[in-house]
Amino acid sequence: MSGMADFDRVAADVRNWGRWGDADELGTLNLITDEKVREAASLVRAGKVFPLGIALGADGPMGMFKFRTNPIHLMTVDGGDATAFAEYARKWTGNPTAQTLAGIFDASRFRFNDDYIMMPLQAGTQWDALSHAYYDGQLYNGFSSDCVTSQGAVHCGIDKVDVKGIVSRGVLLDVVRHRGAATALDHGQQITPAELDQVARAQGVTIGTGDILLIRTGWWNKFMETANPGEMVAGLNWECAAWLHDLEVAAVACDNIAVEDLESGVEGMFLPLHCLCLRDMGLMLGEYWDMTALAADCAADGVYEFQLVAPPLRVTGGVGSPLNPIAMK
């Protein structure tokens, strides 16, 4: 177990504040250059497409943390309304919505369905915005944590990412396959920088500046077997922050709950990798990405690089966003 002095030393080493200017709110996404985007596009050779997002539904993986729920899907107009409103709506004078729908349905053969979804922005496959995690009263680049109000994040919100779009070369490191695990990594065996180097060498892939790194732990596959959101599977050791910084990775995503291992490794600090990546480095984290089909294809053809298109929703002031990332080979 490391102490806070070790954490503070690493934080100072990886901190990117001011690297791209005092007003910067993109962090390591600045490493994705036009040349990197062109490089990523050149990796699409076979035309294979792999969606990496999980389903948004009532059977999702929320439940580990009580402050998030699974999405709630509600129909506001459905097939039964077309028949029912024709008979009842004209008598239902106190409901202007019913009156409007009845008028639409009476006017022509046109029919439609409509729905809503209510959900935490991080209730499925998602990006953490740079405003999501912080410590000592400061966000990435020194912005005060007070700038995140009940109306959203003034600075470092997920909407600030829109100008980049998040398209780059993606690299998959399949730690599950490397360890020979049946489904998922055993809890208690955290993923270290040395192991990530070993996986990359075994796969014959290099990691370069501006790449988006996908790391497979098997958590999602385990959840699909057990439906237990509290499944404990190994994640990244907190010292991977320095490794990500040295390689100039633009962003990192995993198929698990928090990217990092839920056993801290730093006494007195919960989720230290979140703090180092989001607050100090300005590096966004992706969680709950389903890499199953992509990993199988990479193992089959030996190609672990691809074009990754992973833009978040432009939620004004949001501290995270759902998405359906697409890997193309």
Task: Give a quick precis of the structure.
The chain has helices at residues 4-14, 34-41, 79-88, 96-107, 175-179, 193-203, 219-226, 240-247, 272-281, 292-301, and strands spanning 49-51, 72-77, 114-118, 126-128, 148-149, 152-153, 167-174, 212-216, 251-254, 284-287, 305-309, 320-322, 326-328. It is of the alpha+beta class. It has two domains: 4-66 and 121-328, Glucose Oxidase, domain 1, CATH 3.50.30.50; 72-118, no CATH class.
3D architecture notes:
The protein has 329 residues and is an alpha+beta fold. The protein folds into 2 domains: 4-66 and 121-328, Glucose Oxidase, domain 1 (3-Layer(bba) Sandwich), CATH 3.50.30; 72-118, no CATH class. 28% of the residues lie in helices and 16% in strands. It is built from 10 helices and 13 strands. It has helices spanning 4-14, 34-41, 79-88, 96-107, 175-179, 193-203, 219-226, 240-247, 272-281, 292-301, and strands at residues 49-51, 72-77, 114-118, 126-128, 148-149, 152-153, 167-174, 212-216, 251-254, 284-287, 305-309, 320-322, 326-328. It has a 9-stranded mixed beta sheet, with helices on both faces. A two-stranded antiparallel sheet has the order 2-3. Helix 1 (4-14) packs parallel to helix 9 and helix 3 packs across helix 4 (96-107). The longest helix has 12 residues, at 96-107. It is globular. The relative contact order is 0.22.
